[in-house]
Nitroreductase family protein (Actinokineospora cianjurensis), 313 residues
Amino acid sequence: MSTTVSTVHAAISAAVRAPSPFNTQPWLFAAHPDRVDLWLDRSRVMTVTDPDAHEARVGCGAALHTLRLALAVSGHRTEVHVLPDRTRPDLLATVLLDGKYRPTPHERALSEAVWRRHTNRRPFLDRPVPSPAKTALMRAATVEGAQLHLMDQPAEVGAVADLVRRADHVLSQDSAHVDEVHAWIGRQGRSDGVPVAASGRPSTPDTLIVLRELGSPAPAVPFERLPLLGVLTTVGDTHSDHLAAGQALQAVLLQACAAGLAVSPLSQPIEVPATRDALSAHVGAAAHLVLRIGYGHSGTTTPRRPVSEVVLD
Ligand SMILES: Cc1cc2nc3c(=O)[nH]c(=O)nc-3n(C[C@H](O)[C@H](O)[C@H](O)COP(=O)(O)O)c2cc1C
């Protein structure tokens, strides 16, 4: 294997650490000596829960961000072409290797966070996130062409919590959605889906934010009284915006991880058209995900498929 090909494979092994809906890992990569192509893997899109592959594209955007970061840290300048071929809409991006690059200490710190970052579905501490940390999270999203709207006041957190609760209720009544989710949770010894060990703790009924029911067998515990919430948005709502939101998502998550913050994404309001519209109207832009952010005891990383399973021949 040439140096560049092994570098590309190492970058792909970092890219697959990106978050994806229910750890479906809906991506495929084609590695070439001078470029990497990122494809949407249609066979891994949750067709009931995510009929337009919106959330899958957000996950692929997160993988794209991680791939760029890993290549940068291994000394490669990259040039990214998003959706480069209109006749092949599932070719999401082409990343050209474009000469040498000297990574910054901040990029190195973020690339180390790739391996520690995980979704934390446990209760957070009742400890406020300081302003400089919030500013850094918002900046991370802006650099990637998205916005992170942060909320920590009871009325605005309550309004978003209400939309999460409404959406969660609608989804819980949809048997096709419930069946589809069950196929991806409670897994043991698998390299995809959400394992029981990562399913967090059920919350007591007085908890403000309704987390997804992921089959945790643990007893319910009280959660933090008032979490910091973030709504990730873009101005438009095209496929390219979904990829920008995903790149911003991973930039925010890595920045949070490097700053010692825990995050759990909440996508119930995105999966119900009426609540997504209401959430988007509330923040004045197309909403892609809600993030619950705070300080917490770290949880566990979830497995990924090996690179050999996600690289096309
Ligand atoms: C678009 C998107 C939506 C997600 N929605 C939720 C959610 O509603 N609830 C949740 O607990 N996790 C959610 N997640 C987190 C994934 O379940 C998680 O990334 C995946 O299981 C891999 O685990 P990791 O983030 O710990 O690596 C979402 C992730 C993405 C990218």
Summary: Residues 54-73 form the longest helix (20 residues). The chain has a mean pLDDT of 96. Residues 131-294 form a domain with the NADH Oxidase fold (CATH 3.40.109.10). Residues 19-23, 55, 58-59, 62, 118-119, 121, 194, 198, 212, 264-268, 289, 301-302 surround flavin mononucleotide (CB under 6 Å).
